[in-house]
Structure formats: C-alpha cells, structure tokens
Task: inverse folding
C-alpha cells in the first residue's frame, strides 16, 4: 500500500527523506542503501542533502539571450554549501537560494589563500537532456588538490550526486542553445578564524553555477600572447599542477602587462630554455611537422608539476590518439623550437585548450627576447591552416557535449 | 566661547565631525585640514572614518592571563573595514564591532586568492603608553604588495591614522605586560562577484586585532627545521617578495610533512645549490666566522625576489650595522657552506626573525640530501653560543618596543 503523501510539497526536505518516501511508496529503493554506514570524516553524503527551496520572489529572471552572457557574471538561483570541521567531519550538504556567505574576518581563506576550485559545465543536448562533461575527472583533480592544499577530502560520487540535484533544481538555467552551457564552480575554502599558518580546522565546500554564452559568437577569434620568461606561473616543487587559488593571484598583474601590449593572454614560459607550459589559464597544443618529418600534435608533459592536468587537454589527447591521423606526443617544447619551426614553415597550428572555450587559436606571439631585451612578433598561421586539426577537435568535443555524438563514458546524464 | 556639546555621546560619529567639533571648541584644528581636496581614487581618508561604538553587551571579556594566549585565536572588540570599487574609489572607512563579513560566493578572494595582508604589533610600554613598531614599514610593504596583486593603493599615513583610532578604542586590549602585545592584521581582498581571472573591480580593506601572549614563556625554545629542496616557497619571476596570501597556502602541506618528521618549521631552500631563503614564515640569519676569519652576521639578499623584506629583518640589519661589532652582510648562502662551517665549528648561531617572535633560535636541521636521498641531522649550536648575538637583538628590540630604550623614528605613539 503506498504511503499517503502530503499534497503540499514541503519547502525544505532532505534527500534521505525523499528516498524513504520513495521506498515506502514504490518499495524499490533498498533500505540498506539508506542506512548504510556513515563515515563523515571521509565524506559528506548525498542522502544527507538538505534542500531549501526558494520562495517564488527569490527566483531571478533568466537572461533573454544567453549567447550574449559574459563569463562568470550571471548566477543561477541555487548554491550548494557543506561545512566541515576537524572534530566531527562533514556536516549535511545543503542546497539553498544563492546568497552571501558569512565569513569571519580571521578565516584562513582570506589570509593564506586556503582555497581551491574546479571549473566544469553542464550542457543541454539536442535531445533536451542535460549532461555533465566528464565530471569524475574534475572531482578526481579536486580531491588531489584538496590533499595538497591541506583541506578535507570527500567522495567523488557523493559530490556528483549533489551536483546532479543542483542541476535538476536549476535546470531552467541550462541554456537551450548548442553554443551555451551552465558553468559550475565547486569551491573549497578554509574557514576557521585563527591566524596561525597551518591546517584549517574548519572548511566549507560550496558550489555556484551560472549560464555562459557563446565563446565564439562570430567564429574563432585568434589571440595574441605575451611570452616573457621574466614572469613565471609555476615551478618544480610548487603547486602548478593543482587547481589552488594561489596559482591565479600572481597572474593578474602579468595579465595587465600583457593587455598593455595588446596581448589577450600570457604564454607562460619556464626555465633557461624557455619551455612552453601554459597559455593564460589554458593548456597549450601545437600541430606541426617535426624535425623527423612526422605530422605531430604536441603538448607539454605533466611530470614536472608545471602543468595543470586539464580535462579538455586529456580529452584532446585521447581523441587524437584514437583517430591515429598523426603522432600525439607529450614532451617539453621550447621557444627556440617554435621559432625554428615557424622559420621553416613547419608550424601549422597553435591553440589553447580549456573548459571555457574548448580550443582557442593563437594568432601571434609577442616574444621578449631575453638576450637582446627586445620584443619580436611571431605570426602563427593557425587560422589559415589547411589541416583543420583544432577545428576537428572543436567540432567533435561540441558534438559530444551537445549529444550529437556518443563517446562512451564521457557524458553524465542528470 | 566653546560650543555646548551633547552630554549623551553619540554611538556613531565620524572623525571629521569630531574634528569640526574640536575645531569649534578649541579653535586649534585648522579648517583647511578638514576641507582639503579629496581624491578617493587614490586613498581613503582618516577624516571620513565612521566609528560605530559597540553596545556594552557586544564587548567581550578580556583574557585573565594574556601571557597564555595562543597566537591568532583571540580578537579585540573592533574591526576596521573600508570598501573600494573601481568606479568611485574608496568609500568611507568604518570602525565597528568585529563580526562576520558578508562575501558573495563568487568573490575573487575565494577563487583566485585575490588577497594580501600585513602583520604588525602595538605594545604597552613600561610608561603605560601604547606604541606601534615601525608601522610605516608595514604600510610601505602593503602598498607594494597591493600593486603586485592588482588591488587598490592607498595612503600610508591615512591608514596609520585609522589604525591609531582602532588602538585608542581597543586600548584595553593591549596587554599590560612586557611579554605580550596586540597583534594587528590589515588585510586587503578582491570582492567583486565575477569569475573571470582579472583585476578586481571591488575590494575591501579590513583590519582585525587581537592580544597575543608570550612567545617564550619558559625561555627560548630552539626549533628543528626540515630542509628539503624538493619543496620550494618562492622563485624568481614569482611573488615571494610580497605579502600575498598565495605564498602561504602551498606551505601548509609542507609544514605537515615537517611536523611528521618532528620538525617545527621548514627551512626553505632554492635552486641547484640549495640556497637558504627563509624559515617557516620568518627571515633567516646566521652568525659565524666566515672563511676569511671575520665574525659575520649574514642573511640572504632581497634582489632575486625570493625573500620577504621583513620589518624585523631590516631592524636587525640596522642595529647590527649601528653596533659595528661584526661584519653585517646580505648575500646568498647555501647548504654546503652551512655544512662546511658546522664541520669547522665556525657556525655559532642561526635564528629566524619575524614580528611574532622577534628572533627564533634554530637547534637542528633535518637535511634531505638530494644525492643520497637520505636525511642528515645537523646540530646548530645556537643555544650554547657564547657570542649572544641573537640574545642582544632580542633584548634590544624588546627594550625599544616596550619603551625602555629610545630608537629615533621606530616607535609611533597613538
């Protein structure tokens, strides 16, 4: 006999109670699932999720034309928060209307950059289903980063289930457009109000989301890069391979320097030989004919800890290897090699890869020659390449993200 | 004729109105002082300061024994806040009862470590006067750091005047003890709720303060240091010379590593030769007989951008040079030199310097030998040194800070 449910839906409920109600009604959810052992020292739990529904007046008006939205300026209606303390572990995760966080002015995040984040997206497919792109990759990186940042660990699948609930609540915010998406920003901060430099004893996980518009509303826009080895993003023995907030603050002033020289991004070089590492906040790829005469896709390797292991980077490498149309190589690559290849007309394409844009073509490098102390303009023929390597990556990833093409295990339905 | 003032003091007032009242009453404050030109794009102003007095029930109980206080766990009654935005510049600074800040979850400080701080102290002298130690040094560093962090600049003297008002309000929190002090933490964060990595368009300056106890309640405690060149604090082309929050987050996990090896601090090495750079969050000093046979105080130089220009570091160098008892040298110094000097019994003292402790003696280095991949214990005879170099610095700085000794221009009365 199904239980009689109240006709008036409660404004606040937990996922556990919904599972219980659902089990009582349908007798399909195994009760063990609901009652299995907790270890709140290890993770928070999806079934503990408390959902606080917004009042109608708290819901915001959705943008008329999502393609025009600037990145990171518009937020959806809900946020997720989950507190942690060293004594009791994770508290119940909550989804509630987005609002300001109350943070003690002595909180570690405000002084010692005790913080990390992820950037990921949900897409409304051509079949109107909403899917996340490889969320387990982002969660695996977030867990690695949490350990390096001395912030608490959690379970990937519990988090993905919580993200799924957020997307269900805010599904109207996932744009109905195959050039837009809903950006998701899971964030973890140290919050205890004590000024000693040390492990956080309190922390807060939160997730905010927001629709983002077309990155390329008028076709690909090639970017100009400032390449100046006097500015360093990451170094061996540091945290460049982790998505910690501390990697970004020092780059903002360098970005201003780049802008003052009409460059949109910084090409981050490292070391005596000026190895290419990243571009802006993206990974970097080259497509060229190497000195042995092979057509080759190349990107810097992860082993020195200078490179953020990007989800798009990994996806391009996997697709490139699957297609088998050219060599796919992860190796250190320096400015002299780039200049030589350009001079010999062997460099066809250079592009950044990242969640925001998928790929971003490079049109020019403004290179500070450290020997002469002069700037050299290097023109990169990406936009006139006949090989279409970047374009094929862009099309394929987009087809997968919007459900026009199936790639096993990459898209996660909500 | 003096103006008749209300007998009931207002709970909220501005410093400007107080100056006006004072001018009307005493005819001593020149009215030009009050009405001089504003440029809120350049700085906030002391005369705009709004003071919101606490209700009696908001005032906290002061600790019975301040010497027992743990660093950074106890806060005084008031905080200062001052908002900034790119359009209108600085708003009015406010002093109000300490409380949680409301921060949007998309604020730059929570994602990209858009943050910086200072650490400084006020002391109650043996004459019962309250003084700050070289506050203009901290403010000069904070301004340099703000520029590097792409956060707004301000005027040092306006800030020192605001700090002075805070100290007057919270003067009962400045411990009546010549081993305790009131720690002050000016902080500047980027607050605009937009997720693009770029210059903050909104920011908040805030200051919190709190009494701190005796660093050495039972005499000097020598520390053990983990020295392992696989962990790097700062690098040329980075921001190690600035007091940005991003320099601290990566060190927390390394500190855990050190603690797991029974070391209290990390000796930060840099580069192929394993140059000594800093110790924990302190600068490092050695006192030795150099290879030429000179008695010499030595600390690493600032020019490579690897070293935070510490106020205590600067003070020790100035005192050491003034005394003229030994050579005082800023130069790069590496682990091999330290080991050689130890073996030849020429190394007498090694100590950290910083605001919290003034000086902190080093008793042991646990050195990871990168060639053998083994750990070597190096015993540093600081505690048994007959030269008393560290001890004299400690005594002198303490005498200056607590008003027993005058050093022109170092102490600022409130």
Result:
């Amino acid at each position: 006999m199904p239980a009689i449910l109240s006709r008036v839906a409660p404004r606040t409920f937990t996922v556990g109670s919904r599972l219980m109600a659902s089990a009582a009604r349908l007798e399909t959810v195994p009760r063990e699932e609901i009652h299995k052992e907790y270890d709140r020292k290890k993770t928070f739990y999806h079934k503990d999720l408390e959902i606080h529904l917004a009042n109608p007046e708290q819901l915001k008006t959705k943008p008329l034309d999502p393609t025009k939205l600037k990145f990171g300026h518009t937020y959806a209606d809900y946020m997720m928060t989950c507190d942690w303390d060293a004594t009791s572990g994770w508290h119940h995760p909550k989804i509630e209307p987005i609002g300001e966080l109350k943070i003690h002015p002595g909180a570690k995040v405000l002084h010692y950059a005790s913080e990390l984040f992820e950037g990921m997206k949900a897409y409304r497919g051509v079949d109107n289903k909403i899917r996340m792109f490889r969320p387990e990759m982002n969660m695996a990186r977030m867990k690695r980063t949490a350990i390096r940042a001395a912030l608490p660990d959690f379970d990937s699948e519990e988090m993905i289930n919580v993200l799924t609930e957020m997307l269900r609540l805010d599904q109207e915010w996932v744009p109905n457009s195959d050039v837009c998406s809903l950006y998701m920003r899971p964030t973890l901060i140290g919050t205890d109000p004590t000024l000693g430099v040390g492990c956080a004893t309190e922390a807060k996980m939160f997730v905010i989301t927001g629709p983002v518009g077309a990155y390329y509303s008028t076709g690909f826009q090639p970017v100009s890069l400032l390449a100046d080895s006097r500015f360093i993003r990451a170094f061996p023995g540091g945290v460049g391979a982790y998505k910690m907030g501390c990697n970004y603050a020092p780059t903002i002033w360098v970005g201003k320097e780049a802008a003052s020289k009409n460059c949109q991004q910084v090409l981050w070089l490292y070391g005596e030989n000026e190895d290419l590492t990243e571009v802006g906040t993206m990974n970097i790829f080259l497509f060229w004919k190497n000195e042995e005469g092979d057509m080759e896709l190349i990107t810097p390797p992860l082993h020195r800890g200078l490179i953020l292991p990007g989800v798009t980077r990994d996806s391009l490498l996997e697709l490139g290897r699957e297609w088998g149309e050219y060599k796919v190589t992860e190796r250190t690559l320096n400015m002299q090699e780039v200049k030589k290849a350009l001079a010999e007309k062997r460099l066809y394409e250079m592009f950044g890869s990242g969640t925001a844009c998928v790929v971003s073509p490079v049109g020019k490098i403004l290179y500070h020659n450290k020997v002469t102390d002069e700037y050299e303009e290097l023109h990169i023929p990406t936009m006139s390449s006949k090989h279409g390597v970047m374009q094929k990556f862009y099309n394929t990833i987009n087809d997968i993200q919007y459900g026009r093409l199936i790639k096993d295990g990459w898209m996660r339905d909500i």
Summary: Chain B touches chain A through 63 residues (CB under 8 Å). Chain B is about 25% helix and 30% strand. Residues 1-6 of chain B have pLDDT under 50 and may be disordered.
